[in-house]
């Protein structure tokens, strides 16, 4: 894979330096068979340093997960070597099975087979609370 | 209505409608004696709470309905490891309405997703207990004739007291309610209620450690228990506990028509000599609790 140019795939750009691996694992990119490049500490005029992830296949990525990590990340869709779409992100209203509730008194700690769901309560503060027990989402950033 | 998990699931007009209905049931109980004939209520109590269960069961019987269920997890299939989802799905096949209490926060919400019948949360750990709040609101309305333009004091454990949090949220939707928060520093109202409800909605509130200094301003005094296990050390507990015990002495400056509420059970935070004071309304709350639950059951079953 030529890291500079992919023919058909996705470039996740403007990731805050150091967050690429977190995104890699949340998006479960380890499950992909195709080439995936993680570029760390690339030069950026806007950000100083940034991370980039390039995925060399046509696929849908979960924009809610990327928006949750950082709504300023850009997702570029590449077809035939050309940029065909820039996806705009926002903080998702709901996060389903992305993060887990850590409250030991929460029903999710004992009940099998129910999704871990977090609801956006304050977009300004990027505050999510568990749908079931209303505990704040664990702060990972 | 398919579920009541949090008091805020109900709009202000809905709450007012329930209060009105409860008052009508109280005044004309005969009109309602057959309303739930052939209807069954399942009381699924995954942890024991005799007080709440009796109130619901008595409400259903007074509507002519029937009750089935269990009163603690030991006597149910839960002790064999059955999930909340499966227990509720099964119970909802046999019943028209489910009343559920569970030690885990959010369990009734999970239940409502799986149930074929409407679900009422009768307490989920330290989280929500909406029918207690309905009882509190009904009692304030009955005794004071209004839910707006009141000065309401909350005294004791404001940090962990879920009934306090729900009642503050519910009252924040009425005009002109002033909140007086009386607690030791260790047990102050958590910021997600203070900032998230009071500050956010621009409501008037004051915080103090001293009950006696604010007594004369109050229309309603909501007492809660200051529990020993909430303190880091015994000295702090012993130093503070008496300040938050209501005695006839402390009531001297209170308005003659102030009302005293308490979610019960009480341990020692209200001296028994106050029980006969006309301002003491905590036993009236118990009676009111049955009537507001009757109104709620009718609403959830869609019976007029
Ligand atoms: Zn939770």
Question: What structural keywords apply?
Answer:
heterodimer, A: 141 residues, mainly beta, Alpha-Beta Plaits, 2 domains, five-stranded antiparallel sheet, three-stranded antiparallel sheet, 8 strands, B: alpha/beta, Rossmann fold, five-stranded parallel sheet, 38% helix, binds zinc ion
What does it look like?
- With 141 residues, chain A is mainly beta.
- Chain A has two domains: 9-88, 2-Layer Sandwich (Alpha-Beta Plaits), CATH 3.30.70; 94-130, no CATH class.
- Chain A has two helices and eight strands; from the N terminus they run βαββαβββββ.
- Chain A has helices at residues 20-26, 63-69, and strands spanning 9-16, 36-44, 48-55, 74-79, 82-87, 94-96, 117-122, 127-130.
- In chain A, strands 2-3-1-4-5 form a five-stranded antiparallel β-sheet, with helices on one face. In chain A, strands 6-7-8 form a three-stranded antiparallel β-sheet, covered by helices on one side.
- Chain A is elongated, with a radius of gyration of 17 Å.
- The relative contact order of chain A is 0.17.
- Chain B has 304 residues and is α/β, with parallel strands linked by helices.
- Chain B has two domains: 3-128 and 287-300, Rossmann fold (3-Layer(aba) Sandwich), CATH 3.40.50.1370; 130-285, Rossmann fold, CATH 3.40.50.1370.
- Chain B has helices at residues 12-27, 50-62, 84-94, 107-114, 130-144, 162-171, 191-199, 211-214, 234-241, 282-301, and strands at 3-4, 40-45, 66-70, 97-102, 119-124, 151-155, 178-182, 205-208, 220-223, 259-261.
- In chain B, the strands form two sheets. Chain B has a five-stranded parallel β-sheet, sandwiched between helices. In chain B, strands 8-7-6-9-10 form a five-stranded parallel β-sheet, with helices on one face.
- In chain B, α2 links the parallel β2 (40-45) and β3 (66-70).
- Chain B starts with a strand and ends with a helix.
- The model of chain B has no long low-confidence stretch (mean pLDDT 94).
- The A-B interface holds A 103, 105-114, 130-135 and B 83-85, 102-107, 109-110, 124-127.
- The structure holds zinc ion.
- Zinc ion (ZN) binds next to loops of chain A.
């Amino acid at each position: 894979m030529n890291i500079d140019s992919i023919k058909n795939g996705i470039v996740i750009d403007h990731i805050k330096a150091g967050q690429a691996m977190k995104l890699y694992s949340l998006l479960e990119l380890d499950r992909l068979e195709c080439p995936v490049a993680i570029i760390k500490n690339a030069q950026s005029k806007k950000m100083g340093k940034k991370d980039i992830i390039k995925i060399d296949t046509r696929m849908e990525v979960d924009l809610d997960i990327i928006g949750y990590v950082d709504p300023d990340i850009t997702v570029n869709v590449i077809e035939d070597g050309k940029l065909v779409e820039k996806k705009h992100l926002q903080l998702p209203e709901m996060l389903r099975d992305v993060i887990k509730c850590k409250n030991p008194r929460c029903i999710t700690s004992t009940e099998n087979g129910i999704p871990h769901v977090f609801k956006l309560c304050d977009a300004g503060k990027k505050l999510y609370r568990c749908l079931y027990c209303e505990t704040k989402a664990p702060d990972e950033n | 209505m398919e579920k009541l998990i949090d008091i805020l699931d109900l709009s202000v007009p809905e709450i007012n409608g329930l209060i009105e209905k409860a008052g009508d049931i109280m005044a004309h109980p005969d009109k309602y004696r057959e309303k739930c004939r052939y209807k069954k209520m399942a009381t699924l109590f995954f942890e024991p709470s005799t007080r709440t269960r009796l109130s619901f069961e008595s409400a259903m019987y007074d509507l002519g309905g029937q009750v089935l269920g269990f009163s603690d997890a030991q006597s149910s299939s839960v002790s064999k490891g059955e999930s909340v989802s499966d227990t509720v799905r099964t119970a909802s096949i046999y019943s028209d309405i489910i009343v559920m209490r569970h030690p885990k926060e959010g369990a009734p919400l999970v239940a409502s997703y799986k149930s074929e019948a409407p679900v009422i949360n009768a307490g989920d750990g330290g989280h929500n207990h909406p029918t207690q709040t309905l009882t509190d609101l009904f009692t304030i309305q009955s005794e004071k004739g209004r839910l707006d333009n009141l000065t309401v004091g909350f005294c004791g454990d404001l940090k962990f007291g879920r009934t306090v949090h729900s009642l503050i949220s519910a009252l924040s939707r009425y005009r002109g309610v002033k909140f007086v928060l009386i607690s030791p520093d260790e047990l102050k109202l958590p910021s997600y209620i203070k900032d998230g409800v009071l500050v956010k909605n621009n409501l008037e509130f004051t915080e103090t450690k001293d009950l006696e200094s604010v007594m004369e301003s109050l229309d309603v005094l909501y007492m809660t228990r200051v529990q020993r296990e909430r303190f880091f050390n015994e000295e702090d507990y012993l130093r503070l506990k008496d300040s938050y015990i209501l005695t006839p002495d402390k009531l001297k400056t209170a308005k003659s028509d102030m009302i005293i509420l308490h979610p019960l059970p009480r341990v020692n935070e209200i001296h028994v000599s106050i029980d006969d004071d006309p301002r003491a309304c905590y036993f009236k709350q118990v009676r009111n609790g049955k009537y507001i639950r009757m109104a709620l059951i009718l609403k959830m079953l869609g019976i007029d």
